[in-house]
Each structure stands twice: as C-alpha cells, then as structure tokens.
Amino acid sequence: MTEPVRQRRSCGGVLGTLLVVGAVIVGTVALSPSLALTDLRDAAIDPIVGVPGSGGDGYTFMATTPRGTPVTWPCDGTIELEVNAQDAPEGYAELVASAVAQVNDASGFVLEVVGETDDREYQERGAGPVLLMWADESEVPELAGRTAGIGGSSYVQGPGGGGRAVGGMVVLDTDMPGGLLRRTDPGPVLVHELLHVIGLGHTEDPSQLMAPEYSSQRGLGDGDLAGLQALRDAACS
Ligand SMILES: [Zn+2]
C-alpha cells in the first residue's frame, strides 16, 4: 500500500502533463515458502518515489538492499505479465505490446504477456505474474487527481542481504482529468510504470521518462538508459 505522489513543478505549460507515480508495493524476508509480505508505506510517503541518492546521473533505484544494490529481477528468465482488460482502452493490446517491446529493447530484461486475467488485486502482490489493469480512483485511490498510473514490484530479501523482484503491478487511470488521456499518448506512461516494475525510481531530471511528471518526453533519455544498464549489471553480476 502506498500513498500517491503529487509533486508539482512550477514550470510553464503544465497542461498536457500527466503525473506518473511509482509504488514499491511490498518488501519481505524470503526463504519461507509463504512470503511474509510487509508494508512499505513509509517508503512511499516521501514525495520522491525511489531511494534518494541511489543510482547515478539522471536515475534512481526504486528500492535498494542492505548491501546497497538495487532491487531488480533475475538476470535470466522472463517477467510474466498478465493483463486485466476490464475498462481497457480500445487498442490496448497493441499499446501493451509496443510498451513491452520498448522496455525489453532498452533494459535487456524480458517482459512477456502471458495471458489475460480477472485478477484486480493490485495491493497485495506476492510472487507471480505482474498484473496490468486499468481503473479509476474509486477503485484505486492512488489514481486521484492528476496521477496517470502507478507501478511497482514486490520483492523478496534474503538473509544475505540480497534482494530480487518476484511480482508486481501497473494500474493505469481510465479517467484522466480534462480528457488528458485522449490528447496524450498513454504509451509513455505505461513504459514509465513498467520501468518502476523493472526497478527504476524517479529522477529529478525532467528530461528523463522517469521524471515524476510526464511532459512530452520522447522515449528514454540517457539517464533512463544508464539506470536500466545499472539494473542489468546488478542482476547479472
Ligand atoms: Zn513514476
């Protein structure tokens, strides 16, 4: 469970921007068949989603382990994604495929849509497929106001101090204030949320896609790419 982030920037031309929010949903101690998932509410009250000071130039990590390494997915294997198409926009399958391809190309990780689901449990995600769904703020209060989406991973942490992602979720807002979604390509918002799932937090650099506000960034910036490389290095080292 997390709190939404409503960080506003005092730059002009705010119209057309969408707030995109990341959420680390759960962390836990592993080595138990039943994952004792705990709440990271404290980590998300901070207006910066991610670990301040982690990462490098133009990027942060969503979560870090006691060793100081970023939490991300295993080097090998696929990250399974299940889609709940309830209230999804027309053409959502193409949107998802396009976003997944972009994330895979940029990250080296392999997200794969494995099917559709009726599951709408976005808070208590344990190990298993990453859930992608659409909702409004009546169901997902984190989507209130200008928030366009939320995303994050659940992860396990071992006694040796390592950690790895084992599940997660992305929820995209069906109800953009002022019809912003109709005027703004939702693809970048989905990519942004999927990068939270992979392990990137927010950056203060507004030119990066992982900035907390979407302001017509085109594709991934140098900081986004460097962050993904760092996650890949951590996963495969
Ligand atoms: Zn975000």
Automatic annotation (TrEMBL):
It holds the Pfam family Peptidase_M10. InterPro entries: MetalloPept_cat_dom_sf, Pept_M10_metallopeptidase. The chain crosses the membrane at residues 12-31. Residues 187-231 form the Peptidase M10 metallopeptidase domain. Keywords: Hydrolase, Membrane, Metal-binding, Protease, Transmembrane, Transmembrane helix, Zinc. It comes from the Bacteria. This is Peptidase M10 metallopeptidase domain-containing protein. It comes from Ornithinimicrobium pekingense.
